[in-house]
Specification:
6 helices; two-stranded antiparallel sheet; 2 strands; about 140 residues
């Protein structure tokens, strides 16, 4: 079942804020929270993430029914990619080197910002490229 395109974009906006605060403050617990949010989105789809829940309960009723839909697999893959970067960021911030935490968190922030500001989902595009490559290989 396809999903409302506004949900992942809303989640990306919240992710952008969270990751920016992580970079500004170095708060590892906040990065751990974002890692959990990514993990839930990757495991159950963006609708099962905390940000998806907020969108469904608080935002969507106020903005009306969706007019555009997308398949859930690309955003779910993007959550998995974000999870990978967040885990690397946690490792960098907790075990070192510090630059690794900053770089991984910064990369996740850049991707989230592109999605929230411009509707361009890097993880979704990676998913589509991988699908094309694997389809040709078969």
């Amino acid at each position: 079942m396809d999903i409302d395109v506004r949900g992942p974009r809303f989640g990306a906006a919240l992710t952008t804020v969270v990751l920016a605060v992580v970079l500004i403050t170095g708060n590892v617990w906040l990065l751990a929270w974002q890692t959990l949010a990514f993990a839930l989105g990757a495991a159950g789809g963006v609708g099962r993430s905390p940000y998806g829940w907020v969108f469904r309960k608080a935002v969507r009723p106020r903005i009306g029914p969706p007019t555009e839909f997308e398949p859930p697999e690309p955003p779910r893959f993007a959550q998995a990619v974000g999870l990978g970067f967040a885990v690397v960021g946690l490792v960098g911030f907790t075990l070192g080197p510090q630059w690794l935490g900053l770089a991984a968190t910064g990369a996740a922030l850049a991707a989230a910002f592109l999605n929230s500001a411009f509707g361009y989902c890097l993880g979704c595009e990676m998913y589509l490229v991988l699908r094309r490559v694997t389809a040709r290989a078969e």
